[in-house]
Design brief:
This protein is an alpha/beta fold. It has a single domain, classed as 3-Layer(aba) Sandwich (Rossmann fold), CATH 3.40.50.1580. Helices cover about 30% and strands about 25% of the residues. The protein contains 7 helices and 9 strands; from the N terminus they run αββββαββαβαβαβαα. A 5-stranded mixed beta barrel has the order 5-8-7-6-9, surrounded by 4 helices. α3 links the parallel β6 and β7. It binds hypoxanthine. The site of hypoxanthine has 13 residues, from β5, β8 and β9.
């Protein structure tokens, strides 16, 4: 089966359970899954029950699709995402975003935990992704192009939807939440970067580094789904403070800023 047909089969299964037309797609990253608790009238579908959907293996990542409403706006929320470092192909990692497109979602919001390389950031900073650097050495759009999703050579000049970015900065101001903007650079992982890699990332213009999101952005842009990305800077990247990095620190910071992150996302979703 082609990737399009695989996605269509997943979408048809989900559509047989819940109507997601015009929903806001949401992908919740490390430690941020509990926004899903605020979804009203939730319909929960386990990834393992969806045809062709892979299953997540990372602690802190549940494997559920939660459909419902946030402030009367329909959302289709992925509680837990797939990562390249888990051994999935890039196509598989990004596949749920294509499924969202087929399900009629009007945009997708991607969130992640990231390391800060911009020295003005601190653990807890929220960053709207303005642009990105794909340093994963792979691409979900490799291979024969699927014209039913989008063109062979998609433009990335305006990859991140400007209206959604502006809306996020405006909402943050209204809520008095400090939000920065910057460039997200994706590594393959699963190791945290070396200090030398972070110096490299800084020199080529990265403000934050992580191990996700770029595959989903590429696919969203390819199929014409407006995309917003927000990173939670959970730690300063390797070598900046001299401290060693741990997944526990990532989760602790994500927990600490959870309330702001949730409130910001809710405000953005309500105004879309
Ligand atoms: N590097 C890569 N991914 C991350 C980091 C980091 O420092 N923090 C959270 N996710």
């Amino acid at each position: 089966m082609s990737q399009y047909e695989l996605c269509l089969e997943s979408a048809n299964f989900i559509r047989s359970i819940v109507d997601t037309t015009d929903a806001v797609g949401l992908v919740l990253g490390s430690g941020l899954g509990n926004l899903a608790e605020e979804i009203e009238n939730p319909v929960v579908i386990r990834y393992q029950d969806i045809p062709n959907f892979p299953v997540t293996t990372v602690p802190g990542h549940a494997g559920e699709l939660v459909c419902g409403y946030i402030n009367n706006v329909k959302v289709l929320c992925m509680k837990g995402r797939f990562h390249f470092y888990e051994g999935h192909s890039m196509q598989t990692v990004a596949m749920p975003v294509r499924v969202m497109k087929l399900l009629g979602c009007k945009c997708v919001i991607l969130t992640n935990a990231a390391g800060g390389c911009n020295p003005s950031f601190h653990p807890g900073t929220l960053m709207v992704i303005d642009d990105f650097i794909n340093f994963m050495g792979d691409n979900p759009l490799y291979g024969e192009n699927e014209d039913r999703f989008g063109p062979r050579f998609p433009d990335m000049t305006k990859a991140m939807d400007q209206k959604l970015r502006e809306l996020t900065l405006r909402s943050a101001k209204e809520l008095n939440i400090d939000v920065q903007s910057g460039v997200y650079m994706s590594f393959r992982g699963p190791n945290f970067e070396t200090p030398a890699e972070i110096r490299f990332a800084q020199r080529i213009g990265a403000d934050a580094v992580g191990m996700s999101t770029v595959p989903e952005i590429l696919v969203a842009r390819h199929c014409g789904l407006p995309v917003l990305g927000i990173s939670c800077i959970t730690n300063m990247a390797a070598g900046i403070t001299g401290e060693e990095l741990t997944h526990e620190e990532v989760q602790e910071t994500a927990d600490r800023v959870n309330k702001d992150f949730r409130n910001l996302l809710k405000a953005v979703i309500s105004s879309i």
